[in-house]
Amino acid sequence: MGISSELLAFLSILVLVFAAAWADPLVPALIIFGDSVADAGNNNNLTTPIKANFPPYGRDFVTHRPTGRFCNGKLTTDFTALPFTAEYLGFTSYPPAYLSPEAEGQNLLTGVNFASAASGYLDYTPFLYNTLSLTWQLNYYRQYQNEVVSMVGSNNTSAIFSGAIHLLSAGTSDFIQNYYINPLLRIYSPDQFSNILIRSYSTFIQNLYALGARRIGVTNLPPIGCLPAAITMFGSGTNECVPRLNQDAIYFNNKLNSTSQDLKNRLPGLKLVVFNIFQPLLDMIMNPGDNGFFESRRACCGTGILETSVLCNSRSVGTCTNATGYVFWDGFHPSEAANEVLAGDLLQQGFDLIS
Ligand SMILES: *[C@@H]1O[C@H](CO)[C@@H](O)[C@H](O)[C@H]1NC(C)=O
Ligand SMILES: *[C@@H]1O[C@H](CO)[C@@H](O)[C@H](O)[C@H]1NC(C)=O
Ligand SMILES: *[C@@H]1O[C@H](CO)[C@@H](O)[C@H](O)[C@H]1NC(C)=O
Ligand SMILES: *[C@@H]1O[C@H](CO)[C@@H](O)[C@H](O)[C@H]1NC(C)=O
Ligand SMILES: *[C@@H]1O[C@H](CO)[C@@H](O)[C@H](O)[C@H]1NC(C)=O
């Protein structure tokens, strides 16, 4: 990132924060769907091995406690939530995980989080790990809308949901935790598999639109070939990003862009933004020093052979003491420091959603 785009990102954030603090509400609520990139604790309430509710997860979070977030600290969505909810509405918390005890009463009115680690565009992906598919997340969203109706009436509810920003993050688990390791899916080429995911994406957006959502942001696939776990599993002993996997992500991302454009053309009043996280994350990985990082291959926690099974836990050996210089916290997930950089990019790309 050059100086000028850094400055631009900074100014964008400043504008958002000031607008947030002093002007009329930008958006009434922030509602989150997707996978471990955005899960704020839903999997804590599920019977699944895919959890992050134990140390050292959360050690750098506000509370210094594990919350279920797959990170040492805040997620990208936590950083983006700040200007929208915490600052401007005067609440001090992030949209709560829908299955957590915090998701009740007034908290519901500013948004909730349905994301569940190991979820994906394909319902079959979370089925393998017993986590919440997007279909289930949408069922919960319907239930949630009814709860809001009973609190503020249907007119106010429509206003909340048409004004709310909806964020979706999915696709990584479909590839890494399903397609690449599941012989049953190898009948499809990566390209055919992408088409299946994209059809599911399109259906999801149309369903969300039918339920009143008008502002939706979706993240594209990160450079999945550079995730430390992917390098361990598919890198054939090298310590380099796996080009084949990154190429699959690029093809998927192209389809995501064109399908999103089609959806915007077809659905009147829909604001739909594809957030490009592929490029900023790849930049951090390839030129870590430009953003103040020194390590972009090895994860801070649970790296090495173990990361394919138990990821990272209190018994993991060699966990770094200071994750600030690491792009990756564990084998699959960026560190809080990297999430903060990504959030700056997202806010910059997200103006269309609030205009
Ligand atoms: C989730 O787990 C918490 C703590 O165990 C419990 O209090 C809560 O009722 C659970 N929520 C749901 C929706 O199951
Ligand atoms: C619904 O919105 C109106 C005006 O926007 C407000 O006066 C009213 O208090 C709201 N109703 C509830 C139940 O919050
Ligand atoms: C809801 O909005 C409609 C159309 O604007 C209006 O006719 C109706 O009276 C409103 N209902 C309530 C309960 O405010
Ligand atoms: C998709 O669109 C975004 C925003 O217009 C752009 O930044 C990105 O490069 C595009 N990505 C692909 C893979 O075409
Ligand atoms: C953690 O590392 C960063 C740079 O990587 C450094 O700026 C910071 O001071 C370190 N924090 C502690 C507590 O050592």
From TrEMBL:
Keywords: Signal. Belongs to the 'GDSL' lipolytic enzyme family. Residues 1-23 form the signal peptide. InterPro entries: GDSL, GDSL_lipolytic_enzyme, Lipase_GDSL_AS, SGNH_hydro_sf, SGNH_plant_lipase-like. PANTHER family: GDSL ESTERASE/LIPASE EXL3, ZINC FINGER PROTEIN. This is GDSL esterase/lipase. SUPFAM superfamilies: SGNH hydrolase. One of its GO terms (biological process) is lipid metabolic process. Transmembrane segments: none annotated. GO terms for molecular function: lipase activity.
